[in-house]
Amino acid sequence: MNILITGVGGQGTLLASRVLGKYALDNGLDCKLSEVHGMSQRGGSVITFVRIGENICSPLIEEGGADIILAFEKLEALRYAHYLKERGFLLYSTQEIMPMPVVTGACKYPDDIEKRLPEKSMGIDALALAEQAGNSKAANSVILGAFTKIMGLSYDKMKAALLGCIPAKLTEINEKAFEFGYNA
Question: Which architecture characterizes domain 2-183 according to CATH?
Answer without folding.
Answer: 3-Layer(aba) Sandwich (3.40)
